Amino acid sequence: MDAAARKGVRLDIHVFPEGTHTAEEAAAAVGAEIGQIVKSLVFVCRADDGGLAPVLCLVSGPNRVDLARLAAVTGEPDIRRATAAEAKELTGYTIGGIPPIGHAAGLRVVMDPDLGRFQTVWSAAGTSTAVFPVPPGTLRMLSNAHVAPICEVRWAADVEAAQAAEPPAGA
């Protein structure tokens, strides 16, 4: 991707014959933990000109954005999730393939601190069939992201219950 090359970073793009529709499918396709999958989620708030201003959230696979936290972090009380059409119009990419970098217009980017738990995370590379691995610190630098707690709090009991409900490996 040209945006990375301009900052001196070479990305190793992996292309798959079929797209992945969930973070779980993406993790299985690249052989990673679900937490290593970067979801690029588009939110919108009012721009100074009255139109829509995008906010791109880079979120760890199992996490969900908490709108109240995102509003507090961005200072935008009326922020909401973008529709598929709005996301395409504002980023130039279709949901499922929105990359964290390389957008024609500058985007405000907020990154989930949970991504920093991993040496490598996997992000979309512009299509639903292309991804690239990248260290979280490099991802933050490339996307000019502000790292902030924007996700719902998951209590230990909730995590344990979700793990207990998963089928055993190899099942």
Keywords:
single chain, 171 residues, alpha/beta, YbaK protein, 5-stranded mixed sheet, 3-stranded antiparallel sheet, 6 helices, 8 strands, 27% helix, 22% strand, globular
Instruction: Give the helix level as a range of percent.
Output: 25-40%
The major pleated sheet works out as:
5 strands, mixed
Give unreliable regions as ranges. Answer: none
Spell out the CATH superfamily: YbaK/aminoacyl-tRNA synthetase-associated domain
Distance between the termini: 38 Å
CATH second-level architecture: Alpha-Beta Complex
Note the overall shape.
globular
Give the SSE order as H and E letters: HEHEEHEHEEEHEH
Q: What is the gist of this entry?
A:
With 171 residues, this protein is an alpha/beta fold. 27% of the residues lie in helices and 22% in strands.
Provide an overview of this structure:
The protein has one domain: YbaK/aminoacyl-tRNA synthetase-associated domain (YbaK protein, Alpha-Beta Complex). The model has no long low-confidence stretch (mean pLDDT 88). It has helices at residues 2-5, 23-30, 67-74, 84-91, 136-143, 156-165; strands spanning 14-15, 38-46, 52-60, 80-81, 108-111, 121-124, 130-134, 146-147. The longest helix has 10 residues, at 156-165. It has a five-stranded mixed beta sheet. Strands 1-7-6 form a three-stranded antiparallel beta sheet. Strand 6 (121-124) and strand 7 form a beta hairpin. Helix content is 27%, strand content 22%. It is α/β, with parallel strands linked by helices.
